Amino acid sequence: MCDIAFQDCYPQDVAHCFGCGSLNQHGHRIKTYWDGERTITRFTPRPEHTAVPGFVYGGLLASLIDCHSTGSGAAALARARGIDMVRDGAPRCVTGSLEVRYTAPTPLGPELEIRGIIEEVKGRKVVVSSQLLADGVVCVTGRAVVIEMPQGMGMDRG
Amino acid sequence: MCDIAFQDCYPQDVAHCFGCGSLNQHGHRIKTYWDGERTITRFTPRPEHTAVPGFVYGGLLASLIDCHSTGSGAAALARARGIDMVRDGAPRCVTGSLEVRYTAPTPLGPELEIRGIIEEVKGRKVVVSSQLLADGVVCVTGRAVVIEMPQGMGMDRG
After folding, report:
1. Were both Cys, which of A23, B24, B38, B103 would link to A15 (CB 3.0–4.6 Å)?
2. How many Å lie between the alpha carbon of B140 and the closest alpha carbon of chain A?
3. B146 lies within 8 A of chain A by CB
4. CA proximity to A57, closest of B28, B12, B42
């Protein structure tokens, strides 16, 4: 497993995402890695990330799967194109669609693990399916279609 | 339009959600209201809620649609049962599944408006479809299946 996260390979002008940008001081700054053919992200929610007492709120779980998927998509595109992300920077994906199923309440406390499978890489599009586990139990499943960002989107505003 | 938000009718033991709980000091505390047959939520993202500079990150948008949907579901259940939420408290829903489509980048800056349609009420289940608009443009659409929370879930932990 390479010890440099996908998100740490994003170019600096597109590394501000609240969920995964290394430059966002207020955000979650999730880190995603290859684990064999799978991708993996670990994150421990904070006490305030509650739904009802004792459980993680669903919006955070959707957010984690979203950024885990854009990161996984970036790495999948890089691999398909033979790009060395650490040396040359990662492609940057945005989400086209996201489906999340909450199959069990997610306990607040333990570190969460999100496992991703690259289902399809086609041109600029990647389909990523994910499982989010707490204490080894699958609590959420997700499927995201992510798309390589149009060039210059990071420069349009702000 | 009643000026008391759905979320302000949640019983206090289940009013801690990061997205919509009135008791969560760190959260978004979104407020949803009836607007005729529709439901409506307004929220202005903070500067750090960025995706790439100038745009709102998708995880927040999914979160907003999620809590807007659970709130809309609560109100729809109350209406179907003839419950006066302000007097007797609102049912509390959790999300079973959430689908979000990002149809246009959401600009960071303007207040966002989320409009909900109650598609179906069946027993403890409600289907809510939503549109999220910025500056009058639909940027995200959503569909959520929400379910009335099992009794005592708010008391299981914490």
Report:
1. A23
2. 9
3. no
4. B28
